Amino acid sequence: xxxxxxxxxxxxxxxxxxxxxxxxxxxxxxxxxxxxxxxxxxxxxxxxxxxxxxxxxxxxxxxxxxxxxxxxxxxxxxxxxxxxxxxxxxxxxxxxxxxxxxxxxxxxxxxxxxxxxxxxxxxxxxxxxxxxxxxxxxxxxxxxxx
Length: 146
Description:
Elements: H1 7-14, H2 27-37, E1 41-46, E2 49-55, H3 56-64, H4 92-102, E3 106-111, E4 114-120, H5 121-144
Antiparallel strand pairs: 1-2, 3-4
């Protein structure tokens, strides 16, 4: 079954609010934000420009396992600066492929270079499940003559 849908649709349902941190934020403060907002990654923005992304994975590999202090280390020292992104016009299928090929769980959404949202692999999976459920319901209604 081919999934048709754009990221714009997902952002519309999810909401486009995005929490960000600056490169000067301490890792401890960034981890606190992840916990408070119940998110797994946060875009790092400086002067309105996306400069990287900070994730729980960055913390565990670059702070905890390296024996560094999260209260003293700044996000800029450990952020993932190679950021893969998408646009609102990208399809769900394209984004799933991007995320799988790049082994990432969070995808910033940019429009004309401006950060307008972020989606997770969970957002895409939820969208696919909802779309499949709707398609099955329509087929059942058609078959049963409802």
